[in-house]
Design a protein that fits this description.
The protein is an all-alpha fold and 124 residues long. It has a single domain, classed as de novo design (two linked rop proteins) (Up-down Bundle), CATH 1.20.1440. The protein is built from 4 helices and no strands. The chain is elongated and about 50 Å long. The model has no long low-confidence stretch (mean pLDDT 94). This is Four helix bundle protein.
Length: 124
């Protein structure tokens, strides 16, 4: 943790970028009438995960970083909801949905671990 120079050094940020790309690719296949609805919402929330990790890492204080990790976790839950709705509407098959949710869970675990480490560093 002490060798962190920027958000680009964080594996969770790198993984979240790959995941955002996957969300974009799958949502590109959804009906065009969802362009300003579900597509826009799921993409915005997915981008928010990576963006909040980056913004938190760029802050001066550890407490602020922890706060932005919490926002990123909230965005993960939002994307999960959008993806489950897309699945219910038939926009995603279970085979398309499962890997997105599995990566989301992995990112969530990594964010939780990062938050715990940051809190320990803040309160030794």
């Amino acid at each position: 943790m002490s060798d962190l120079r920027t958000h680009r050094d964080l594996d969770v940020w790198k993984l979240s970028l790959d995941w955002v790309e996957a969300v974009y690719r799958c949502s590109a296949l959804w009906p065009s009438d969802e362009r300003f609805g579900l597509i826009s919402q799921v993409r915005r929330a997915a981008v928010s995960v990576a963006a909040n990790i980056a913004e938190g890492a760029g802050r001066k204080g550890t407490g602020e970083f922890v706060q932005f990790i919490g926002v990123a976790r909230g965005s993960l839950a939002e994307v999960e909801t959008h993806l489950l709705i897309a699945g219910r509407l038939g926009y995603l098959t279970p085979d398309q949905l499962q890997p997105l949710l599995a990566e989301m869970e992995r990112i969530g675990r990594m964010l939780s671990a990062l938050s715990t480490r940051l809190k320990q560093r803040q309160n030794p």
